[in-house]
Amino acid sequence: MLDATRLTALRQEMATNKYDAFLVPLADAHQGEYIAPCDKRLKWLTGFTGSAGMAIVRTHDAAIFVDGRYTVQVAREVDLETFSHQHLHNNPPAKWLRAHANKGERIAYDPWLHTPAQVKLLEEEVKAAGAALVAVAQNPIDAVWHDRPARPLADAIAYPEEMAGESASARRARIGELVRGAGADRLVLTLPDNMAWLMNVRGGDVAYNPMPQGFIILAASGTADWFIEDAKLARARSEIDLEGVTIHAPDAFLPTLADYANTGETIWLDGNWCPAICAQTVERAGGTVHDEPDPVLRAKAHKNEAEMAAMRTANARDSVAWVKFLHWLDANAASRAAAGQPITELEAADAILGYRKEANQFMEPSFESISATDGNAALCHYAPTLKAQASVGADSTYLLDSGGQYLDGTTDTTRSVPIGKISDEYRDRYTRVLKGHIALAQLRFPKGTKGHHIDAVARIPLWQVGLDYDHGTGHGVGVCLSVHEGPQRIGKAVNDVELAAGMTITNEPGYYEADKFGIRIENLCEIVEGEDGFLELNDLTLVPIDTRPIDFSLLTKSEVDWLNAYHARVRAELMSQVSGADADWLMRATEAV
């Protein structure tokens, strides 16, 4: 919960600088999904620990904005008598400011933590209210956060070229040609996964994200300025391909950017991802901003054969860990519940982590595991804690969404498992989710298809009975990079990116019944091209799908054939990698139905 002295200290700092309001996003300078402890300003101020949100602090009131995933969590963690709870999407910060800002007020924000696109929207609404949006030179929270953690300094490592399939210098030259073709002189990179891919490096500055933080300015010639703490390179500098690369301290990033802009250069910035201060720096120095999606996003999404081969190997290895975990769960959940010593959600999450640690090249989880029983599983992004977790009961349901970061790839899989008796409602919903999963797995689609074109395929079995799920159906996954990798995705929202061979995508329909259960069946897939030029999904995840909850009266023969073929493949590819009781369990779990 809120430490009231922190809010008081922030307001005093705001008063000193004559700010009437200050925006506190859950963000860092890299717009990362996960951020370092030193950047968790929203948590420091409010106590909120979710993955998306913002606070607005004014002289006499304050508001916190979170989406529907965190309605329960925000009430647990934040003093809602101090911060009014607002819906992040239904009543977003910009809209709220237009209704609450007064004429002549100065609304302050940190330009390192907001993108140009976000600032443009905020400016429009604040101006309409007669107020002014003001960029701060120093974040006022940093001025009063006296025990703020230091910036991360994890070692960077060279990523093997045999896994990358291309040298870093070749990648820089290839992207440089795209910069030149767009009529720009230089490209600014601020997304850590894009930089890691471009430089063929990996790191560990932020949990679940094996990449170093920094900034890059890439010239059209393929040369680059890399702004990174020298300490991160101390151990691996000689192993990293630095041809045409000049290393600078991070503090030199904005001055160097200004120097290039001062000569009249055109600088390519992605307005949806880079910090607003980058565009502001270029414009103040007299340069021209070329605002277009970062070309590395699409280049990285199209895996070469070496990258895809590495992903296949990593996902097969991770699938073995899943087999061991599901066997352990099957063997212990009901018996321990009956004995009064049930498996806890954290224990289950630790169990699959332990099996992953047995595998070669494992580095860390790819995200915080969603280990959830019964009603907790209805919260799409639930994560148990020591203070708030449940146990797997004798007649309950369990969902695990979990993944690993391996040197040769990243994984993301979800399985839903019934323990004991299965209700008719759960059986029906589970079968419909499975039908949606199989429908997408069987789909063949032409080149030019975009994610929103095929999203409904996975939802139709639920739609037929008036049900749906409130999340996307698929997202990209990186190669030892981000577990949520764009720009491709499958969802209801329009996405202008064409699905293409060499991309990865998840297949993860679900269903969630509040306070009862949650169901999701997720495989990571690669998009492949058939002989006729049509595209289809090939499963990278090779984990048995529980057949016990299936209502077979709802499945077609084609769907049963797909399930049997999938399980035959799982057995064929994994049986040699397990032994003893794990092998016996795998035989049973993959029996034809």
Write a brief caption for the model.
The protein is α+β, with helices and mostly antiparallel strands and 593 residues long.
Count of β-strands: 28
Radius of gyration: 25 Å
C-alpha termini separation: 51 Å
Count of discrete structural domains: 3
Apparent shape: globular
Query: What is the CATH class name of the largest domain?
Result: Alpha Beta
Described by strand count, sense and barrel closure, the largest sheet is: 6 strands, mixed
Give the overall pLDDT as a whole number: 96
State the CATH architecture of the largest domain.
Alpha-Beta Complex
CATH fold-level assignment of the largest domain:
Creatine Amidinohydrolase
CATH homologous superfamily (4th level) name of the largest domain: Creatinase/methionine aminopeptidase superfamily
Task: Give the DSSP E fraction (strand runs of 2 or more residues).
Answer: 15-25%
- Strands of the widest sheet, in order across it, are 4-3-2-1-5-6
* DSSP helical segment count: 19
Please mark out the parts with pLDDT under 50 across 5 or more consecutive residues, or reply none.
Answer: none
- Name the structural class: alpha+beta
Classify the helix fraction into a percent range: 25-40%
